[in-house]
Amino acid sequence: MYSKAVASLIVLACCAPGAAWSQSALMKQAQGLFKPIPASAPSLPGNDSTPAKLALGKMLYFEPRLSESHIISCNSCHMVGMGGVDLQETSLGHRWQHGGRNAPTVYNAVFDVAQFWDGRAKDLEQQAGGPLVNPVEMGTTETHVVEQLKGIPGYATAFAKAYPGASDPITLDNVRKAIAVFEATLITPHAPFDRYLGGDDKALDAVQKEGLALFISKGCAACHNGVNIGGGMYAPFGVVERPGAEILPPGDKGRFTVTKTVSDEYVFRVPSLRNITLTAPYFHTGKVWDLRQAIAIMGSSQLGATLTDDEVGKIQTFLGALTGEQPVVTLPILPPSVATTPRPKP
Ligand code: HEC
Ligand code: HEC
């Protein structure tokens, strides 16, 4: 202990690389709180990835005929090539209707503890069934999804290859499984921050490091941590001070709707901050378009801290280092409809 202190004093006296010493302390602290995105897609329990299943999942993700109108696919609201979001406050779905919440990105969603702002689906597989039958999203029914796919001859082969040995492979369960396998590949590794966590001190510049230090010391990392810098736990929106009704309207009680527990009122899953500069607007209401404003609101609502402009700016710069390599997806060729294929109902 004593000798360590003396050693660092000597180092300081000699050539002032005290900064370097505390830099490596910052890296160690960061490595304890956050984890890098793995380079390849994680495997899903009970749902093996095979090339045929992955190819099918990709087709279904881009398949507008899974919606009643045949114009809305998963990609309509979670656009690959645009951060996995739709850039709307709340999504536009079936018959031009708006849903009640902002669409979170599908990128890296596989690493979250549960799906949706309120965590009502336990994983991607369970989640994928939701939008199909949601009246303001894709607006169809479970029976119709199966009918529709059975009415497109090319899918018989695609499902048979993806689920070899199944006597009746076109089922809703198998639709969900295939989509989940594809979504698990939508990950964004090698962000500057991941390289930093991997030991490359030069991956972050000086301001990004100051932002990281603030992100930790101010308390953001108490909730936004782990592999997704969030996504691992639930917390009230407004721990210290409830934001205004425009940003947090009283009608959406968040996780309370799932658990019916009073202490879960206005509790939401802490969102991932990965690729956050690509996924405006922010919060479950999508009411905040400026990342700086979102950071300042978090300071007052979650931590009771008024962050200075300078602090907000540094944290914003650090958050920019969370943008990873975006998945490159070749559009699938979808099997054609035939005369007997069920028609769209606009
Ligand atoms: C009309 C727009 C729309 C369509 C179409 C849509 N989604 Fe979503 N998606 C949303 C919205 C809005 C949410 C958040 C809803 C909530 O939390 O209550 C969401 C949530 C999700 C989530 C959870 C992400 C997270 O971080 O919690 C995943 C995964 C997802 N959607 C995948 C899909 C898939 C797969 C499809 C196609 C089967 C699909 N979505 C179709 C709008 C849409
Ligand atoms: C007590 C837990 C907690 C703390 C501390 C916290 N957050 Fe959050 N954060 C949340 C929750 C919960 C949400 C989702 C709020 C909502 O929309 O309902 C959120 C949302 C966000 C968003 C918007 C993300 C999106 O996709 O819309 C950003 C940006 C953010 N936080 C950054 C920060 C920063 C920066 C700090 C530190 C100044 C911080 N947070 C501190 C829990 C926390």
Give a short overview:
The protein has 346 residues and is mainly alpha-helical.
Protein architecture, described:
Residues 1-22 form the signal peptide. This is Cytochrome C peroxidase. Heme c 1 binds at residues 74, 77-78, 94. By secondary structure, the protein is mainly α. The protein has two domains: 28-39 and 189-320, Cytochrome c-like domain (Cytochrome Bc1 Complex, Chain D, domain 2); 51-183, Orthogonal Bundle (Cytochrome Bc1 Complex, Chain D, domain 2), CATH 1.10.760.10. It has 13 helices and two strands, in the order H-H-H-H-H-H-H-H-H-H-E-H-E-H-H. The chain has helices spanning 2-15, 18-33, 51-61, 74-77, 124-133, 142-150, 153-162, 172-183, 192-197, 206-217, 256-259, 291-303, 309-320; strands at 234-236, 267-269. It has a two-stranded antiparallel sheet. The longest helix is centred in the N-terminal third of the chain and has 16 residues, at 18-33. The termini are far apart. One heme C is lined by residues 72, 74, 76-78, 91, 93, 99, 101, 103-104, 106, 109, 112, 115-117, 124, 127-128, 131-132, 137-138, 179.
Give the CATH class of the largest domain.
Mainly Alpha
Round the Cα radius of gyration to an integer and report it.
23 Å
* Beta-strand content estimate: under 5%
Order of helices and strands: HHHHHHHHHHEHEHH
**What is the count of distinct domains?**
2
Please estimate the helix content. Answer: 25-40%
- What is the general shape? globular
CATH architecture of the largest domain, by name, is Orthogonal Bundle
- Count the E strands: 2
Mean pLDDT: 92
Uncertain segments: 1-17
**Count of helical stretches:** 13
CATH fold topology of the largest domain = Cytochrome Bc1 Complex, Chain D, domain 2
Helix-strand category? mainly alpha
Terminal Cα span: 73 Å
**What small molecules accompany the polymer chains?**
heme C
Taking strands numbered 1, 2, ... along the chain, how are they ordered across the largest sheet? 1-2
Largest sheet: 2 strands, antiparallel
Quaternary structure: single chain
